[in-house]
Each structure stands twice: as C-alpha cells, then as structure tokens.
Amino acid sequence: MAATAALVWALLAERPQPALAQEGPPAAPVTVAKPVVKPIVEDDEFIGRFEAVDQVDIRARVSGYVASINFQDGALVKAGDLLLVIDQAPYKTALDQAQASVESTKAQLEFAQSDLQRATSLRQTGTIATQTVDDRQQAFATAQANANSSRAALQRAQLDMQYTEIRAPIAGRMSRREVSIGDLVSANDTVLTNIVSVDPINFYFDVDERTYLAYQQLSAGGLNTPVGDSRNEVKVAIGNEPRPAHPGYLDFTENRLDQASGTMRARAVLANADGKLLPGLFGRIAILGSVPYDGVLIPDEAVGSDQDRRVVYLLNPDNTVKMQPVRLGPRIDGYRVIREGLKGDQTIVVNGLMRIRPGVKVAPTESTLPPVAPTGPNEGSEAPS
Questions:
Q1: CB of 328 within 8 A of CB of 384?
Q2: What range(s) does the Multidrug resistance protein MdtA-like barrel-sandwich hybrid domain occupy (predicted)?
Q3: d(Cα 81, Cα 195) in Å, to the nearest integer?
Q4: Topology of domain 45-53+197-288, per CATH?
Q5: Are strands 28-33 and 362-366 parallel, antiparallel or unpaired?
C-alpha cells in the first residue's frame, strides 16, 4: 500500500498545473495632441503650363542669300538688335537705279513744267495754238506721274534695302538658327529662327465648372476681378519647388466654357526678370479659394481610413479611443484642413494609428503641434480621395 501511494503521489506531482490567468495586452503607446486652430485662407491648386507672352517666327521679307548671322543660339536680345543680313549687293544696285530714275523724272518734270508755262503765256497773246497748249499740259501731267512713280519705286528699293537687315521685333530669348551663311531664303516663307519674350510670362490653366461657379459665388467678379484687386493675386510653383512661391496676378478668362471638357481657361501673368520660368514648363498655381476663417488643422499622419470615409481617433477621458469621421480640405502650412468633424478642442491621436482600434485603451503621450509643420508635402494640395 505504501508503494502504491508513493506512485500515485509521484504521478500527481508530474501532472501539469493549471496556468495562471493571463493579463490583457498592454496599452498601445500613441502620441496625442490638440489640432492647430488659427486664421487661414484656403488656396486651390491647379495644374497649368507657362507660355510666352509673345513668340515670333523670324522670316526674311526679301529673298536672297544669307550673308551673315549676328546672334548666338539661345542668346537674350533686345528689340531692334541685328540678327541676320541678306546679301545686299542686288538691292544696292536696285536702289541706285531707283535714285537715278528719280533724278531723271525730276528733270523731265521741270522741263515739262517750264514748257507748259511758256505755252500758257503765248496763248494769252494768241501766238500759239490751243492744241499745242493742251499737248504741253498733257506732257506735264505725264511727267508728274512718272516722277511720282519713280519716287514710289525709290521708297520700295529703300525698304528692300532696309529689309536685308533682319532685326529682332521684340526683346526675348533666341532659339537656334535654322539657316547657315550662304543659304538661299525666300521672302515671307523661310523660317530663319524663333524668338520668345521672357519677362513677363503667362501661365494658362483650366478650372472645372463647379469650381468656377464657386468662385463666382465667392466674389461678384469671380476670376474676372479687375487687375490689381487682391483677389487676383496668385502664386505658382514649378516641378522642383515644394510650395508655390512665384507671385503673379490673374488677368484673363475665356468668354465661355469649353463644351468638350466643361472647363474654363484662365491666365495669370508673372514677373520673370531672371528668366527662370520657361515657356512649356508645367506648374501648380495656388489661387484664393475662401474668405479668411478660423481653421482646424491636423497632420496627415493623424488621418485614417474606414472603408470609403476618412476618420481620426479621439482620446476619451478613460484613455480609450473613439473613431470620428471627418471631411478633409487642402493642405496649409504642412497640415491638412479639417472642414467638418472636429471643433478644434478635442484631443486626437497623431501618431500610432496602426496599433489602435475603437474602444481599446492606449498609453498616450501628450504633445503640442507647432503653428507650422516643420516639414510636409506641398501646400494647397487636394484632399486625398
């Protein structure tokens, strides 16, 4: 019996003991803060393209062989600078002939005039026939017409001679030359080069119909407010710039919406003294999208998704979190504008969203958001869909 009891106790000792009741998972560490609330003005961003105010294809106005090229490819020129010269020899000869013709017809006119004066005097005394007077009157009129014709031919020869020197019609930047010295060019046909104006420069962009109507409601003038009005002030960024920084103003909108796309074409004008903005570059334009108001701003990292809606997590007094749907606006100062869903006095989770779900307890670390985010995506970008 003693041996049997010992064996039973040994077996009982080897049986696994029931595990102690496990504690719940530790509270997830998160960072919480109150939204930034401050006066803001919303900007709307649109994509567009820069275009030169003026662009001219340079053509010769007389035919001939290129005698000289007086510009460097890509150089900046002023209006009136000499660009190319067409061989002047044949036009110099034509000019000399025209000048000689003027002198000849001038002499003929003077002779016909004096001959007519003598005939007129003799007719008063009756010593010359009336027919002779009429003939000399006709000769004078013909000489006068020939003189006028020769002067017109001289003016044309002078113009042709002047047109052999091709000068810049506007100030701007040259393209590459399309001809070489010795090439034969045709008047008003052959493109010799191209020139585009530099300063100022235009920026064209399209506004959808709904946005255009919103602008019309925002201000009586919409996009057509007078030049110099503060509502016309805009800023534009090019591809390698994080935020719009080039100032300009709106000065034109089309007189109707495009029926195919349902958009309105608008134009802004920007100073470009340094020539950094080139025709053809894409850019982002930020224009006034609202009246000033106290906005609620939070980091994009504090925004989560719940199926087809955007949400933030509110911190309850017992350190649990609650999901709050929100409607997003554009980015301003590195933060996302919250148009609906937050009042600005709630505490929200700004970091650690992947570790939480509604109703769970968290271990919050309080922080304060600065008025402007230290780093962040571009201002004015659209709300994520």
A1: yes
A2: 55-191
A3: 12
A4: Elongation Factor Tu (Ef-tu); domain 3 (2.40.30)
A5: parallel
- In the chain, CATH 2.40.30.170 sits at 45-53+197-288
Entry pTM = 0.68
- Please list, residue by residue across 101-110, b when 16 or more beta carbons sit within 10 angstroms of its beta carbon and e when fewer do: bbeebeebbe
Query: Can you spell out the DSSP letters for 282-345?
Result: EEEEEEE-S--EEEEEE-GGG-EEETTEEEEEEEPTTSBEEEEEEEEEEEETTEEEEEES--S-
Q: What is the pLDDT of residues 103-157, one digit of tens each?
A: 999 888 888 888 878 877 777 776 777 787 778 888 888 888 989 999 999 999 9
* Tokens matching residue 71: 């510009």
Instruction: Name the nearest CA neighbour of 36 among 317, 331, 319.
Output: 331
Question: Rounded to an integer, what distance in angstroms lies between the CA atom of residue 42 and that of residue 379?
Answer: 10
59-86+164-195 CATH pick, 3.40.1350.10, 3.40.50.300, 2.40.70.10, 2.40.50.100: 2.40.50.100
All CATH 2.40.420.20 domain ranges in the chain, comma separated = 28-40+295-366
CATH of domain 89-163: 1.10.287
**Which tokens is 84 given?**
């190319």
CB 324 within 8 Å of CB 314: yes
Per-residue DSSP letter, 9: H
Question: pLDDT of 154-191, one tens digit each?
Answer: 999 999 999 999 999 999 999 999 999 999 999 999 99
| DSSP 8-state secondary structure symbol assigned to residue 83 | E
Tell me the H-state helices in the chain. Answer: 2-14, 89-125, 130-163, 209-218
Q: How many residues does the chain have?
A: 385
| Paired tokens of 353 | 């969203």
User: Which DSSP state fits 188?
Assistant: T
Give per-residue burial for 245-274: e unless 16+ CB within 10 Å, then b: ebebbbbebeeebeeeeebbbbbbbbebee
CATH of 28-40+295-366, one of 1.10.10.10, 2.40.420.20, 3.30.230.10, 3.40.50.720: 2.40.420.20
